[in-house]
């Protein structure tokens, strides 16, 4: 039951993020960056699409670092791969979900420090959009707490809308596919 609770909370993180940005078309259109930087459209789709795909895969692979980080370092980590307009929202919602998960683990006499979360991207597909590049990352999320039974794995697809700010690709929107499958 501990693993199911952990998986449910991790899935909730994805659902919270999805609900926050359910207005996909306006979210990516409104992702104009402040701090005197401008959003650049993809100049050369063939060159930029691969760079955006690589940046999206790297962001998904940071799930375990995000889950282990403290409140302040989690915010800084999330803001390092998101746009300035999307980062604070994602950081707030992710921190709330992680805190709830850790409190739930504590109530079940599980040491939250023993929690292991790893998300391994397997494959990614990218396509140019009007605002940048949309990348679908297929991955496996593994959650384990030693001494409480076998770890659980969840196969999922995370869709990230990427925009180029200067020379760097940043996440401006995320969506977790609802077709998650839990395997023992």
Question: Briefly, what is this?
Answer:
This protein has 184 residues and is α+β, with helices and mostly antiparallel strands.
Describe this structure in words.
- The chain is of the alpha+beta class and 184 residues long.
- The protein contains six helices and six strands.
- The protein has helices at residues 2-20, 24-29, 45-61, 63-68, 71-81, 87-107, and strands spanning 39-40, 116-128, 133-144, 152-165, 168-176, 181-183.
- Strands 1, 2, 3, 4, 5 and 6 form a six-stranded antiparallel beta sheet that branches.
- β4 and β5 (168-176) form a beta hairpin.
- The chain is globular, with a radius of gyration of 17 Å.
- The value of Rg in angstroms is 17 Å
Helix run count: 6
Biggest sheet statistics:
6 strands, antiparallel
What order do the helices and strands follow? HHEHHHHEEEEE
Helical content (DSSP H or I, runs of 4+): 40-55%
The tally of strands reads: 6
How does the overall form come out from the CA principal axes? globular
Beta-strand percentage range: 25-35%
Low-confidence sequence ranges: 14-43
Protein topology:
Layout: H1 2-20, H2 24-29, E1 39-40, H3 45-61, H4 63-68, H5 71-81, H6 87-107, E2 116-128, E3 133-144, E4 152-165, E5 168-176, E6 181-183
Antiparallel strand pairs: 1-4, 2-3, 3-4, 4-5, 4-6
Helix pairs in contact: 1-6, 5-6
What key attributes describe this structure?
184 residues, alpha+beta, 6 helices, globular
């Amino acid at each position: 039951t501990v693993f199911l609770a952990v998986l449910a909370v991790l899935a909730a993180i994805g659902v919270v993020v999805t609900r926050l940005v359910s207005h996909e078309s306006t979210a990516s259109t409104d992702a104009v960056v402040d701090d005197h930087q401008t959003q650049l459209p993809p100049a050369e789709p063939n060159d930029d699409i691969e760079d955006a795909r690589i940046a999206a895969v790297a962001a998904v692979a940071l799930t375990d670092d995000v889950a282990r980080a403290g409140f302040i370092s989690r915010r800084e980590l999330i803001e390092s791969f998101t746009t300035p307009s999307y980062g604070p929202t994602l950081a707030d919602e992710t921190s709330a979900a992680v805190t709830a998960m850790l409190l739930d683990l504590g109530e079940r006499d599980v040491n939250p420090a023993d929690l292991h979360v790893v998300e391994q991207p397997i494959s990614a597909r990218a396509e140019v959009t009007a605002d940048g590049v949309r990348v679908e990352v297929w991955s496996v999320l593994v959650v384990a707490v030693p001494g409480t039974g076998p770890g659980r794995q969840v196969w999922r697809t995370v869709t990230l809308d990427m925009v180029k700010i200067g020379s760097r690709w940043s996440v401006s929107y995320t969506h977790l596919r609802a077709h998650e499958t839990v395997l023992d």
